[in-house]
Amino acid sequence: MTTRLAILLAFGLALPAAAAPPPAIPYPAGYRHWMHVTSMVIYSDAHPLFAQFGGMHDIYVNQMGAGAVERNGSFPDGSVLVLDLHEAKEDGGTYVAGPRKVLAVMVKNRKLYQTTGGWGFQAFKDDSHMERMVTNPTEQCFGCHEQQRSHDFVFSTYRP
Ligand code: HEC
Fold first, then answer.
1. Which regions in the chain score pLDDT beneath 70?
2. Residues with a CB atom less than 6 Å from ligand 1
């Protein structure tokens, strides 16, 4: 490797963001050990997102994004948020988690995801670690998250 190339690589300049699509967002292995942000249940069609997102929502953030969640600030690159969505089953006056519907992921990288607020969006179908559901993040995800611009495109707030 030439010295010049080594310097360029060291500063991350050697590979300018080309037109190539960003690499596939990985399954967020280990997220159940991350910080829990908040939980909520969408249980009836009184909520406009019931058809798509009805169920039990648990939100997690990795260590990189934990400070931003607690301060309600903007997220540094490397932050990952997970929405773990299960069916909510009524059971004798309680709601309990049924099967997982989807594991939705947001990954912050201002360089890779310039057109979607600096966030990469992906969703893994039910319990799959492989089956990715997002092919058009702008239409499927960002179009809605965009309304949270003043909160770095994130809806959930920390429940202390
Ligand atoms: C119609 C609006 C809408 C669409 C479309 C949408 N979301 Fe969300 N998303 C929400 C709302 C509202 C919340 C907060 C409530 C919750 O789900 O717990 C949320 C929460 C999240 C969270 C947790 C962090 C946060 O912002 O609170 C992630 C991760 C997430 N969504 C990913 C996705 C992905 C990936 C897609 C595309 C497949 C997507 N979302 C599409 C409305 C939307």
1. 1-19
2. 40, 49, 53, 57, 59, 81-83, 104-106, 121-123, 134, 140-141, 144-145, 154-156
